[in-house]
Amino acid sequence: MNHVFRKLPVTVTQQASILSPSLCRTTPSIQHPVWCTASVGDREYKGMPTHGIGRWKYLLPRQAPKKKKDKTQMKQMVSATDTAYGTLNVKVSGYDMTVVEHYSQYIHNLCNRLGVQVAESYALPTKSTEVMLMQEQGNKMYVDAVLKTHQRVVQLSSLNTSLCPIFVDVLLKNQPEGVQLSVKEHTEADFQARFKARPELEGLIAQINQ
């Protein structure tokens, strides 16, 4: 009995080797798993989904939706008294934006030093002016240059009447070349001048309201 059982596995292995020679390969050792190699098609993660990798926004707390900004409304004007002016606009305009911007900053800093209250400081829309020339022979006009006028406004409130002449005199003495300076009371038309006109949009709104 023992002799038969000993010969049986030998004959089975011989038949297996004849039928399929690929079965005679040496299997990798369990003690050394580093030696095991696999083809690219045998990777386990090849068919796994990768959605969500690198995303982090879901970790942040949810924030309330931002409200739409309301239209800018005109601030209440300060009324003039016997000892102080009301709301005044110091307007600076010129073709060189750098000079206009620096001069408006100088006015703002001067107001801070003299204790004059600055209600607001803003820029007006840039205006473009085309310079047209006529040809020597002919009546056709062509654009020779485009001049852009930059404007800045420093809005003052409650300027003392005794300080106003000194304040204006200092501004005029430090006024750079090519820059225009004007001081006037603030009106509703000055507030509307801050916004660009959109006639097409206004026309569509008028048609909808009809």
TrEMBL record:
Pfam families on file:
Ribosomal_S10 (PF00338)
- Is Ribosomal protein among the key words of this record? yes
Enumerate the UniProt keywords alphabetically: Ribonucleoprotein, Ribosomal protein
Q: Where does this protein have coiled-coil stretches?
A: none
Q: Which domain of life is it from?
A: Eukaryota
Q: Where is the Small ribosomal subunit protein uS10 domain?
A: 89-184
Query: Which InterPro entries did the record assign?
Result: Ribosomal_mL48 (IPR027487), Ribosomal_uS10_dom (IPR027486), Ribosomal_uS10_dom_sf (IPR036838)
Protein name per UniProt: Small ribosomal subunit protein uS10 domain-containing protein
**Species annotation:** Ataeniobius toweri
What does UniProt list as this organism's lineage? Eukaryota, Metazoa, Chordata, Craniata, Vertebrata
